[in-house]
């Protein structure tokens, strides 16, 4: 790792989970001076019991329990700890865009929005304010400096099942140069063992699998409750449900109820399974079709960020990941100009969804990524 005169003080992003807590314990063993930071992003009790939302939420990211766990670990390790309130910015930069995208018939990724527009920016800013040159997080990813390219490179971790590089495609060279990912070379069971060896009480704490501000993963209820709290109502986006040939099969209650690739809850009967093929925000039409019609040969992306290369100059072979649980598929990537690229898959891929990210890989390296259009 290249060292550009960084001091020995590192700010650890502590979420209250086993991963970030283990990072703190590992780095302390390595002799770093540590400061614990927790970004308070969302008040989990804010919409509790509102419009069908759960009355209480426990053990979820951003909960009071998590803040308590993070503080307790910091005390056990004997390191300073600060709680930073970023709720206003999180709502502005993550929650409101999430709601707007869903209402427009797209399927956003709030974790990528949070990393790209809030978390790493604010962590590095706060770290510098308290005397730390670098931050460390519990993400499963690797980053290293390549002197030949004079670039920092983001790589997939040893534990492929925990790979979080898909959510980190927006990181800049400056952010990568000042971030440490200590868990990149470990399997998750090893991390729990390290936590237990350090006597961390949360070594067996379950992982959070949900979006931090949407308990239960029920997007529709969250949007209903959030808009009601804001004194707003869901806009009327009711419209026609049509086949790929244009046949009207029925009407639907709003485009925010659908996502590309969806099979269940379409509101129409058919002798063969139907899938959402396209959502048109302008006409409010939702197009459904067969399994064979739910695949795409190409994907286009905009708002690009390049990591392993400074910019895309020539056509290149990559593997493209179009959602978190998608196995990156071989494709040819080419520029269309005006900040848009197109990847042509070797084999058609299911449910290419506007609003999600397309992340490009060359082996374990993240070449870059952008937002699907």
TrEMBL record:
Subcellular location, principal: cytoplasm
Domain tRNA-specific 2-thiouridylase MnmA-like central intervals: 233-289
A GO cellular component entry from the record: cytoplasm
Marked site positions, Interaction with tRNA: 139, 356
KW tRNA-binding (keyword) present: yes
EC number from the UniProt entry: 2.8.1.13
Catalytic activity: S-sulfanyl-L-cysteinyl-[protein] + uridine(34) in tRNA + AH2 + ATP = 2-thiouridine(34) in tRNA + L-cysteinyl-[protein] + A + AMP + diphosphate + H(+)
An annotated GO BP: tRNA wobble position uridine thiolation
Signal peptide boundaries: none
Entry keyword NADP: no
Gene3D superfamilies registered for this protein in UniProt: Adenine nucleotide alpha hydrolases-like domains, HUPs, Translation factors
Top-level taxon of origin: Bacteria
Ranges for region Interaction with tRNA: 162-164
InterPro entries (UniProt xref): MnmA-like, MnmA-like_C, MnmA-like_central, MnmA-like_central_sf, Rossmann-like_a/b/a_fold
Chain positions recorded as ATP binding sites: 13-20, 39, 138
GO molecular function: ATP binding; tRNA binding; tRNA-uridine 2-sulfurtransferase activity
tRNA-specific 2-thiouridylase MnmA-like C-terminal domain span: 297-372
Function of the molecule: Catalyzes the 2-thiolation of uridine at the wobble position (U34) of tRNA, leading to the formation of s(2)U34.
Family designation: Belongs to the MnmA/TRMU family.
Protein name: tRNA-specific 2-thiouridylase MnmA
